[in-house]
Specification:
This protein is of the alpha/beta class and about 325 residues long. About 45% of the residues lie in helices and about 15% in strands. It has 10 helices and 12 strands. The strands form 4 sheets. The chain has a 6-stranded parallel beta sheet with strand order 2-1-3-4-5-10, sandwiched between helices. The relative contact order is 0.14.
């Protein structure tokens, strides 16, 4: 058990989508939370990583910083997604070890699983094949964080754990059409189409692929609970334990946003991985995590947040 009360906790990526929620959850535990901003510390540069640890002197590190995006962004920048994610993880963990950090929490990705993994995905299947091609460089780069943590635990006795969140959604998500994931992309499309009175919204892919989605606040609670209570070398899935097809998701978002036109699916665009759903029993058994946010309610909250915070057209 790792008590977080009074601890100095660095959250890399703490100003991002998930990071903001993790910071709030840590503050609720009485932690002193420190967030290295990219403009001050480039964590792909070793001298700047060294400086960050000297300045912040963390006792616990939760590593969320990543270069992320949807299928389109992954296809456009696979080299950048691989290199920057590898360097972010490798340097941050190495200097956490050198500086005597008590616990390091690596946050991976469901994209690390093999393309045709048996559903639901079980942690033991993580190495049973190559990831889906469109996001393999990103998924493998994040998987290196798991390998590094296990190697450091074996050689140095370094307390590193690794969690694997499923696709997230919620307030503060990225709604930029060039890089957003499926839920914010569909929310934006449907809201704008409803306002313009469009007759049609075009969705990427066949609509047949399935995904599991976890509300971002639930994920933050899971990460903080794992930081407190999970001590094992093996990775642990963080999810909601259900799947929905992209077609059904699109229809649900259309309904919740008030879009009454037709939804069409562009099969020339990639579906990505055919199915995604996690076995979440390890998280339930080891640190008592179970997702609590109803999917419809979480989507409605996300739509409400987007409408309140989006940039209005000039």
């Amino acid at each position: 058990m790792t008590s977080l009360a009074g601890k100095r906790v660095v959250v890399t990526g703490g100003s991002g989508f998930l990071g903001q929620h993790v910071v709030r959850a840590l503050e609720g535990r009485g932690s002193t939370v420190l967030v290295p901003r990219k403009r001050h510390y480039d964590l792909t540069s070793e001298p700047q990583v060294e400086r960050m640890f000297a300045d912040m002197r963390p006792q616990v590190v939760i590593h969320l910083a990543a270069v992320v995006g949807g299928i389109g962004a992954n296809r456009e920048s696979p080299g950048r997604f691989f290199y920057e994610n590898v360097m972010l993880g490798a340097l941050t963990m190495e200097h956490a070890r050198r500086n005597g950090v008590e616990k390091f929490v690596g946050v991976g990705t469901i994209c690390a699983y093999p393309k045709h993994a048996h559903v639901p995905f079980v942690e033991a299947d993580l190495w049973n094949g190559y990831p889906e091609d469109t996001n393999a460089p990103y998924g493998i780069a994040k998987k290196m964080l798991l390998v590094q943590g296990q190697a450091y635990r074996q050689q140095y006795g370094f307390n590193a754990i690794h969690v694997l969140p499923v696709n997230l959604y919620g307030p503060h998500d990225n709604f930029d059409p060039a890089s957003s994931h499926v839920i914010p992309a569909l929310i934006r499309k449907c809201v704008e189409a409803a306002e313009r009175g469009d007759r049609e919204v075009v969705c990427w892919g066949t609509g047949n692929a399935t995904r599991e989605f976890l509300y971002v606040g639930d994920c933050a609670d899971a990460i903080v609970s794992a930081t407190e209570r999970y001590e094992d070398a093996e990775p642990v899935n963080i999810g909601a334990g259900f799947e929905i097809s992209i077609r059904d998701l699109a229809h649900l978002i259309a309904e919740l946003t008030g879009f009454r036109g037709a939804l069409t699916f562009d099969a020339t665009k990639p579906d990505g991985q055919p199915r995604r759903m996690l076995d979440v029993s390890r998280a339930q058994e080891r640190f008592g995590f179970r997702a609590s946010t109803d999917f419809h309610a979480g989507l409605a909250r996300t739509i409400e947040w987007y409408r309140a915070h989006r940039e209005q057209p000039a």
